[in-house]
Amino acid sequence: MAGNSDRFVNQIADINTDYTKWYTDVCLKSELCDYGPVKGTMVFRPYGYAIWENIQAEADKRFKAHGVSNAYFPMLIPQAFLMREAEHVEGFAPEVATVTHVGETELAEKLVLRPTSETIIGNMYSKWIGSYRDLPLKLNQWANVVRWEKTTRPFLRTSEFLWQEGHTVFATPEEANADALEMLEVYKELANNVLALPVLTGVKSEKEKFAGAVATYGMEAMMKDGKSLQSGTTHYLGENFAKAFDIKFLDKDGTHKYVYQASWGISTRLIGAIIMAHGDERGLCLPPPVAPVQAVIIPIGAAKNAAVAEKSNELKSVLEKAGVRVVLDSRDQSPGFKFNHWELRGVPVRIELGARDLEAGAVTVCRRDDPQKFTVPIDSVAEKIPTLLGEITKNMYRKAEEFTKSHIVPVNSLDEMEKALDGGNFCDAYWCGDRECEDKIKQLYSASSRVCHGDQSEVHRHKCVCCGKQAKKRIYFARAY
Fold first, then answer.
1. Which of 7, 19, 205, 311 is paired with 303 by a 20 to 30 Å CA distance?
2. Apex 111 CA angle, 108 and 112, nearest 5
3. Pairing of strands 248-250, 260-267
4. How far apart are CA 221 and CA 474, in angstroms?
5. What does the pLDDT read at residue 125?
6. Cα(461)–Cα(458) distance, rounded to whole angstroms?
7. Which spans in 210-334 are helix H?
8. Within 13 Å, how many C-alpha atoms sit on residue 252's CB side?
């Protein structure tokens, strides 16, 4: 973990006065990533990629419990495939990177680098599905995608990023839509219990839905600047791609029918969500389930005290056996330097052991999520630290949830909306459902609809926040990444 970047310790911008620079500083100086040589691309450094590996492992086991199998599909897609679903190609056309030549030879058929894989997977499903006995089919792939973004920011929006995309196929529309909703709940549980991230979930507006979907369901997380980060989406695709790629099955009644599909995805922007929802003036604050290092042991005066060095090594072994991802920092640096180094990197627990601790038969423990320090008997470390990690995850969720709830403001007029947005809040509003009002809010305040509220029971009692007509939806508006 050591290296040239150590000189950056404590050189991150003030989170309260320059949030944008603070975010970039944290990404770079905690060694999560670096900029790639091609504009808009990003290199994952080992520490950042380890976070993604942990997210991936937690998500993957949940997918498999849902009956999903992993597969992999080619990155190169015939350009003609995108043209088959009109709404889909229109939605992605500005971002698609096209391959036209191999060496000096022009390709007879242009290829695109996948912006998403509905089309190529649809093509394969048309070959694989023939009968009702082949359904349901539930596949997922962990892959990279390319979308040529104009404005980029590490993890949040890059020209190439990593994600998973699930593509499921059913005999009925009810099953397909249910799958999209079920996977939304899987994502929500992952966000809450693994990332310590409270989220708002619900259906998106027609304007904000996925290109080619019948309905899109979103998961929105509030960042510390009051902006929303779309952290996952699921889509009910209906028969749209089935008709475009002729995906039919022979049903029990002897007739051929089109299948119904759903798709769903989360990406490495979840790392951005973790940074911005939990980070502070000292840098990262990582939820224990995804932290590459869950505990760091810092021996005090070990160079002059062999017993401290020996006991530190014993503690590392004990914690590893207890299932804790632990590092022993025995570098020739001051304790204060090491404290700052690991605080910047968001390690949940710091364990200090010096001669006095050894004499007392205890270690000093410091939590990253809370400045308190306390002692733990050395003989209890293997039991206490895993329990403590669970408590930290819950506390991080509680703090983020309190922040989110305190920054959701009911608004009944555009003036109230402007004040709420400028104050770093989400707006809980009623809306007529017309695109014109949605566009006007975007134009006036740079805010967009995020997801519909889970409680629509009082809609008939309210007017649209924008035009004053009868409301049809209760929905959240926010500025967003």
1. 7
2. 160
3. unpaired
4. 18
5. 98
6. 6
7. 240-245, 269-278, 306-321
8. 4
Cβ neighbors of 225 (< 8 A, separation 6 or more) are 19, 276, 424
Q: For 183-199, how does the pLDDT look when each residue is reduced to its tens digit (9 = 90+)? A: 999 999 999 999 999 99
Spatial distance between the Cα atoms of 312 and 363, rounded to a whole number of angstroms: 10
CA 79, CA 407: separation in Å to the nearest integer?
44
* Dihedral pair phi/psi, residue 4, rounded to 5°: -60, -25
d(CA 10, CA 347): 15
Reported confidence tier of residue 10, pLDDT bands at 50, 70, 90: low
Map residue 426 onto helix, strand or coil. Answer: strand
237-255 per-residue burial string, b: 16 or more CB within 10 A, e: under 16 = bbbbbbebbebbbeeeeee
Structure token digits, residue 256: 């051929």
Structure tokens at 303: 């160079």
Q: Residue with structure tokens 């002692």? A: 375
Residue 420 contacts residue 478 (beta carbons within 8 Å): no
Cα 388 from Cα 161, distance rounded (Å): 33
Tokens of 386: 């895993």
Query: Comparing C-alpha atoms, which of 372, 373, 165, 90 is closest to residue 364?
Result: 373
Two structure tokens written together for 420: 């709420």
d(CA 464, CA 276): 32
The C-alpha atoms of residue 207 and residue 222 are separated, in whole angstroms, by 21
DSSP of 191-238: HHHTS----EEEEPPTTTS-TT-SEEEEEEEE-TTS-EEEEEEEEEEE
Q: Tell me, yes or no, if the pTM score tops 0.85.
A: yes
Asked if 233 and 223 touch (Cβ cutoff 8 Å), the reply is: no
- With contact defined as beta carbons under 8 Å apart, do 449 and 438 qualify? yes
Say how far apart CA 137 and CA 71 lie, in whole Å: 12
Cα angle for residues 107, 112, 115 (degrees, 5° grid): 175
Entry field: residues in the chain? 481
- Each residue's pLDDT tens digit, 448-461: 999 999 999 999 99
- Which of 214, 209, 237 is closest to 125 using CA atoms? 237
pLDDT over 70 percentage in the chain: 98
Residues 296 and 1: beta-carbon distance below 8 Å: no
- As a whole number of Å, the CA-based R_g of the chain is 25
Best CA proximity match to 51, nearest among 281, 269, 370, 295: 269
Q: What is the pLDDT of residues 163-172, one digit of tens each?
A: 999 999 999 9
Neighbours of 419 (CB within 10 A): 14
